[in-house]
Design a protein that fits this description.
Blueprint: H1 2-10, H2 15-18, H3 23-31, H4 47-66, H5 82-108, E1 109-110, E2 113-114, H6 116-131, H7 147-171, E3 175-178, H8 184-194, E4 207-212, H9 215-230, E5 235-241, E6 255-261, E7 264-272, H10 273-291, H11 297-305, E8 310-319, H12 325-329, H13 332-342, E9 347-353, E10 361-367, H14 370-383, H15 385-393, H16 398-405, H17 408-412, E11 415-419, E12 425-429, E13 451-455, E14 464-466, H18 468-481, H19 487-498, E15 501-506, H20 512-526, E16 532-536, H21 539-553, H22 557-561, E17 564-568, E18 576-583, E19 586-595, E20 603-606, H23 616-624, E21 631-637, H24 638-644, H25 649-655, E22 665-668, H26 676-682
Parallel strand pairs: 4-7, 15-21, 15-22, 16-17, 16-20, 20-21
Antiparallel strand pairs: 1-2, 3-4, 5-6, 6-7, 8-10, 8-14, 9-10, 11-12, 12-13, 17-18, 18-19
Helix pairs in contact: 1-3, 4-5, 4-10, 5-10, 6-9, 10-11, 13-15, 14-18, 18-26, 19-20, 20-21
Length: 688
């Protein structure tokens, strides 16, 4: 193809062409080749993305100005002027509307013209809407089923649903983002407001998003969706086109697909990454807008202050004697409540799964940042306090359950609980249920409160345990997948992002590799044509970082490593490609044997650069690659770098011949939040 021809010609090109910063488009101009960007709109970097990232900070500052604080320093939502909060929301909505328009144009318009992929997507969506237009899809539940029945169904079939959807998204080259399970109160609210109380019509209890970097990639996903429906591997109940025909007033767009697994219906949203970035930063605004005019103080407080969480599978729980965890607890909701009490600050329950009545319960958690995950790690592995807290929070018999359910807050809602002669906890409600809605037997005296549920709990001598081996595996992957930076890390990443040449220093465990991985992911996401070079002293470290990139990007390994080249000692051998190799049923990353075709790198990252200062072999190879014309990021240990050289800037200048007027930004991480060596020890070397 034209792009490949351009890369091969680079090896023979004069130095002036090698130093062209325009990537393959500029090379195409030089050699008279077709320009790929004429047909494909890339994500692009630039200030607009930073502008979107500022939305959240601006909104929080605006809320802080109009909402007073309590003596303890927290926001006092109960005494705020909601009219002023509404003004903040309305002003922010106008700014968000413009951001959505900018995001769409970045993807759909090139040099003032709409790209062909727009019409291709419009036509494909129209065809899917025509084929899958069920007006009111619902889960296979009785007409009078309650919220608990739907949550139980989601917990049993949600894992299988996500497995099928993730396979589809990654096959198309997208990133699969697993959403948290919709909360019970939101299910009840949606059923009441939108579906006349029919809980089974709430078909987004389990939901996920497939993210794509370009309209061409999104078109590929729609094609895969059509193919999966045709071969019977996916049952589509409804397809909604909110890109073109049902676009939101705010300018937000997406494609919604309702998919059925064993009678349970969930939702997959397909979207462009730029639009999702705006949505993520506007999510708090959406939550506040929804509750500011009518709901109570608690709902508004949670919308404004509530954690913005990433959802990951973290815990696998087991009960003594091989008993089912959910059988020992009585109900999923009780286990979720106990988990909520036991979890450290910064962690919240997102989903609890019991696939197929399995003995184990799998728990996905929303995690605020790495500090919260570290607290959970200590509580699970070192202190043992987490298991103790779970077992203390769970009722051991019907009497304790009745006491828990008969709390003051439950009584205010009309609930009451007692223990029957057979040892069951009887849950009643005389406010929201009429006798004919309850489980009471026919002919029961109407004066009795309607019976909502009969619950049996018998945990005598049975404790709940965390599978520590499974936790360590999850912990290792989460530490590599995690993207939620601390405020300090965000500041340093922004400094690095804005610089053409940067040196990032940190002490051991300071997270410099973590921040560098986030920078590489930024570059790969912003431009679908970008290629990155990672330089390391040895092959093991280079492949580990490549694995980290695969996990952090949440895309298929093949789609990630085809855009990452590696340069390891001996450096004179040149950059090498990374490929996925299947071995004994497992897949792992390996380096190619031959030198890669030359290309212009969007970013070059040099790891452990303090050990490579003045390395003549590396300096010569970087010169041949035209490194001075790429964005450069050098990583170093703060103590070793400052002890061996007079200035950290010398790290960059000793390896690349930079112009004298070229500025070098030096950023230093001072927080110790993670250790790459511990992550490596906790994960199988390069297996995927």
């Amino acid at each position: 193809c034209a792009s490949t021809r351009a890369k091969k010609l680079l090896r023979l090109a004069p130095r002036a062409v090698l130093q062209c910063r325009g990537g393959t488009d500029a090379i195409s101009v030089a050699f008279g080749l077709p320009q790929r960007s004429t047909f494909k709109a890339t994500m692009g970097a630039g200030s607009s993305l930073h502008d979107v990232e500022a939305l959240t900070d601006d909104l929080e500052q605006a809320f802080a100005r109009v909402i007073p604080r309590t003596p303890r320093g927290s926001l006092d939502v109960a005494s705020c002027d909601r009219g002023k909060v509404r003004q903040v929301v309305d002003g922010a909505n106008k700014r968000v509307e413009k951001r959505y328009a900018d995001a769409w144009n970045k993807c759909a318009v090139v040099r003032g013209e709409t790209i062909p992929a727009v019409d291709e997507l419009r036509n494909a969506c129209a065809a899917l809407v025509e084929d899958f237009h069920e007006k009111a899809p619902r889960c296979a539940l009785a007409a009078d089923a309650g919220v608990g029945a739907l949550v139980d169904m989601a917990s049993h079939h949600g894992a299988a649903l996500h497995e099928a959807l993730e396979r589809l998204v990654t096959r198309a080259g997208g990133e699969y983002v697993h959403g948290p399970q919709k909360a019970a109160e939101r299910i009840a609210e949606k059923a009441k407001n939108d579906y006349d109380g029919d809980v089974a019509r709430v078909v987004d209890v389990e939901r996920a998003t497939g993210l794509f970097d370009s309209l061409e990639d999104l078109n590929a996903a729609v094609s895969v969706l059509r193919e999966a429906s045709g071969d019977g591997s996916l049952t589509i109940r409804r397809f909604k086109d909110c890109f073109f025909t049902d676009q939101f007033k705010s300018g937000y767009r997406d494609l919604k697909v309702n998919v059925e697994v064993s009678g349970f219906v969930g939702e997959l949203q397909l979207n462009l990454r730029r639009i999702k970035i705006v949505k993520d930063h506007a999510h708090k605004l959406y939550n506040v807008d929804r509750v500011v005019d009518e709901d109570g103080d608690e709902a508004l407080y949670r919308a404004i202050v509530g954690l913005d969480l990433e959802s990951e599978q973290v815990l696998s729980l087991a009960a003594d004697g091989g008993q089912s965890v959910l059988g020992a607890c009585g109900r999923i909701s009780l286990l979720a409540e106990a988990l909520a009490e036991a979890l450290p600050p910064g962690c919240e329950v997102a989903n609890v799964y019991n696939a197929g009545g399995a003995v184990h319960a799998h728990v996905r958690l929303g995690i605020a940042d790495v500090a919260a995950l570290a607290r959970l790690r200590d509580a699970v592995l070192f202190e043992g306090s987490f298991e103790t807290a779970i077992n203390e929070a769970l009722p051991r018999d019907a009497s304790q359950l009745a006491e828990k359910l008969a709390s003051e807050s439950m009584r205010e809602l009309g609930f009451d609980a007692s223990v029957s002669r057979s040892g069951r906890c009887l849950l009643t409600n005389d406010r929201f249920l009429s006798p004919e809605d309850s489980e009471s037997s026919p002919g029961a005296p109407p004066a009795e409160p309607p019976l909502l549920a009969k619950l049996r709990v018998d945990r005598a001598g049975v404790n709940i345990h965390v599978d520590r081996g499974a936790f360590m595996e999850c912990y290792a992957r989460i530490m590599m997948r995690f993207t939620r930076l601390t405020m300090h890390q965000r500041e340093k990443l922004e400094a690095v992002r804005r610089a053409s040449v940067a040196v990032l220093l940190a002490p051991a465990g300071g997270g410099k590799t973590f921040v560098a991985v986030q920078r590489v992911v930024q570059v790969l996401n912003e431009d679908p044509d970008a290629t990155v070079l990672f330089v390391a002293r040895n092959e093991a470290l280079a492949l580990f970082v490549c694995k980290w990139l695969v996990i952090a990007s949440r895309k298929s390994a093949e789609h990630v490593v085809e855009r990452v080249h590696v340069l390891v000692a001996p450096f004179s051998s040149g950059p090498r490609c990374v490929r996925v190799e299947a071995l004994g049923g497992r897949r792992r990353l390996v380096l190619g044997e031959k030198r890669c075709d030359a290309t212009t790198y969007a970013l070059i990252v040099v790891d452990e650069a303090h050990h490579l200062v003045g390395d003549s072999s590396l300096r010569s190879e970087l010169a041949e690659l035209g490194a001075a014309e790429s964005s450069l990021l050098f990583l170093g240990d703060v103590s070793q770098a400052t002890s061996t050289i007079s200035s950290p800037e010398e790290i960059a200048r000793s390896l690349v011949d930079l112009p004298q007027d070229q500025g070098v930004v030096v950023a230093t991480l001072s927080e110790v939040v993670r250790s790459t060596k511990r992550i490596v020890a906790g994960a199988a070397a390069f297996q995927l």
